[in-house]
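Margin note from the TA: students keep mixing up input and output lines. Inputs are the sequences; the output is the structure of the whole complex. Example:
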Amino acid sequence: MAEPGNILLTWIGKGPVDEGVLERVRQRVEDAFALPTQVAVVNGPPGDTLDVKRGQHSSTRILRWILTDLPTGAQKVLGITDVDLFIPVLTFVFGEAQVGGPAAVVSTARLGRTFDDKPASPTQVEARLTKECLHELGHTFGLVHCGAGACVMSRSNSVLDVDQKRPAFCRDCRQRLEELMQERNRS
Amino acid sequence: MKPKGFILVVDDEEVVRESLASWLTEDGYRVDTAADGPAALARLAERGYAILLVDLKMPGMDGLEVLAKARAIQPDAAVIIMTAYATVDTAVQAMKQGAYDYLVKPFEPEELSMMVGKLTNAQTLQRENVLLRKALKRQFEFKDMVSKSPKMEAVFELARIAAKSHSTVLILGESGTGKEVLARAIHAESPRKDGPFVGVSCAALTETLLESELFGHERGAFTGATGAARGKFEIAARGTLFLDEIGDISPKLQLDLLRVLDAREFRRVGGTQLIKTDVRIIAATNRDLKKLVELGTFREDLYYRLNVIPVTLPPLRDRKEDIPLLVEHFLVQFRAEMRKPLEGVSKEAMEMLMAHPWPGNVRELRNVLERGAVLARGPILTPLELDLAAPQTPGAAPAETPESLREAERRHIVAVLRQHRWNITHSAKTLGIDRVTLYNKIRRYQIHEEE
């Protein structure tokens, strides 16, 4: 159970969770947002999020599902899954978040290959996952995409884009994040 | 962070609207959604959108119909058609109807990112371009007077208000600043515009001639008055009487004028009958009327009678930003009058025109350009044809054409400054003035070290 004001990372994958990776990602998230962060493991996304024809899960439907079962007191919930995600008009998405809302989802499905479709190293995959988790959670705090390519809030349309950014907020986004968190605490 | 523009997503599937809105919101856009054509058109009537993402196949009104109607409501909004049923035909049709582009579902995130990004960048550039063009074109106008100077904007504003009233206007300004042009413009903007505009130069005539000119005379009023004649006050009835160089009229005429302005009636020279007058007076002078009042050479009561709406025209040296505009204005005139293919002045010539102190103001500029236009061999006027070199060359022999005291003083100051390598103390000593006075003169004549 998450404490009020905390961040909850929930493994909602089909396959087994790599607890070591999840713990290290948790630590990075906790450091980045300076908020207590917990992890949880639940059964993978419900079947109605799957589009059989596409063989992908709808990220928007997964977000709806997360919202129906929000743990009491959790400020933000990030679902981490191994299924491939899509929104209807796009071929795929790495993740989806509600800007300024409580829920987000990230997929590892496309993080395991290099740009030229070779298997990526576990370190590389973990680095990518960390960045995408920070990115989607950044959205839930109200941040939008950043024009600075190295900022974790820059948009990623390919793994190459993910690799090019750093697992940190640029100065402007960091400042904006602090303002948004202060506004949230006041209200 | 500056919020990005509004995007309208039009699609009959809720999950498409929701997910696309979410995806675009992450990019910082403000997104509205509409489930069908009529809802989209209602949205368009409420708010301006930068981009419309419209699904082609929708029940009822389809994407192409929404496109056509949207373009009528907001022609500047870029429409991107989304279709899962792409054919060349529909794509061509959409583009023909003015769609910016189309996307075949499902499309790569990169594709959407690039298209939306490119579009918003282009729109931003276009907007900036329009603003820049506006800023460049920003000029003030009053009838056929044009200016880019805020000082002249204030003059035009005052003149515009004055034109609507019947009050007397007093135009002040150095010779050549365009006092008569402004007077004519005020007349043309006034309710009396259909009446005559009659001008009199008060300094050009002797006292008796001016008296007769203004008030007219009866037969035999003076030697040579073989018949009766109407004066300008009668000729200008229901119009405007422009009294130029009012500071130069004699004390007797000042009194006569005061009486007319007070009583609105006068007698012709040698006449007995009182004639009612209905004219609007615009007076002008290049002299300091207030000073003349202090010196006792101009009647204080007449000064106040004339000084109802004073308008002061700034000298050209105080609105140098107008020089390129005036150059263009006059060259257009000369091109038509002389039937010569005049296009402009060379860079060097413009630099000289900008550096010149213009003691004779706009009139002097016009004369210089007219002379240049006559002498011009090609479409571009050169410094040689403008013949401004003499007063601009420091230490040069005096120009053959008579120059004003101002020009001579400026040239002498530049020469002394050069002689002392711009040492202000030594230059001031040579000139016999103190340093502050020299600084003031340098500023007034806009003398720069590179000269």
